[in-house]
Amino acid sequence: MTSPARNLPRLLGDAKRWFDDALLASMRAAGEQPVTVGQAAVFAALDEEGTTVSELARRTGVTRQTAHQAVHGLIGMGLLEQAPDPASARSRLIRPTAEGARVHRRAQDTLVVIEGVLAERIGAAAVDALREALTLPLGEPPLVEAP
């Protein structure tokens, strides 16, 4: 009996985990403070000028409470800081500290190397095609009837 083909969301999730595992292990091996996948996702979702916790939660697809926990863990590590939001007296912006910016640049550079490893394994053309396909506009999510 053959097993059914894995659906695209599962394949994309598996690929994301491969990148996350490689990045986090590489950063730990380089002597950086260990962070969780959720904390790394917060960094990836930050705007340069700062981002509210609510917006970070929306961008990362988690609850505000979960985003808040990740942010405060990173603040405790000295990688993020809070600043007043000039657009709202009730909000605070989350932004990287100088150390957080350094670690984020190192992570970005590490991802370039990891992408290079992927290109060696599956071919540069496949990586380029994947990047191209994933940057095409998808439009609004469809509402379809279940079969």
Describe it:
By secondary structure, this protein is mainly α. The protein is 61% helix and 10% strand. The protein has six helices and two strands; from the N terminus they run ααααββαα. It has helices at residues 8-29, 37-45, 53-60, 64-76, 98-122, 124-135, and strands at residues 80-85, 88-96. A two-stranded antiparallel ribbon has the order 1-2. Helix 3 packs across helix 4 (64-76).
SSE topology sketch:
Blueprint (H helix, E strand, L loop, with lengths): L7 H22 L7 H9 L7 H8 L3 H13 L3 E6 L2 E9 L1 H25 L1 H12 L12
Antiparallel strand pairs: 1-2
Helix pairs in contact: 1-5, 2-3, 3-4, 5-6
Compact description:
This is HTH marR-type domain-containing protein. The protein is mainly alpha-helical.
Question: Sheet with the most strands?
Answer: 2 strands, antiparallel
Helicity range: 55-70%
> Rg to the nearest angstrom?
18 Å
Return the CATH class.
Mainly Alpha
Order of H and E elements: HHHHEEHH
Question: What spatial order of strands do you see in the largest sheet?
Answer: 1-2
Task: Return the CATH architecture.
Answer: Orthogonal Bundle
Question: How many E strands?
Answer: 2
Please identify which CATH superfamily we are dealing with. Answer: Winged helix-like DNA-binding domain superfamily/Winged helix DNA-binding domain
Question: Counting H and I runs of at least 4 residues, what is the number of helices?
Answer: 6
CATH topology: the name is Arc Repressor Mutant, subunit A
Strand percentage: 5-15%
How would you sum up the global shape? globular
Distance between the termini: 24 Å
Show unreliable segments.
none
Rounded mean pLDDT score: 94
Domain HTH marR-type: 28-127
Organism: Streptomyces chryseus
InterPro entries: HTH_MarR-typ, MarR/SlyA-like, WH-like_DNA-bd_sf, WH_DNA-bd_sf
Protein name: HTH marR-type domain-containing protein
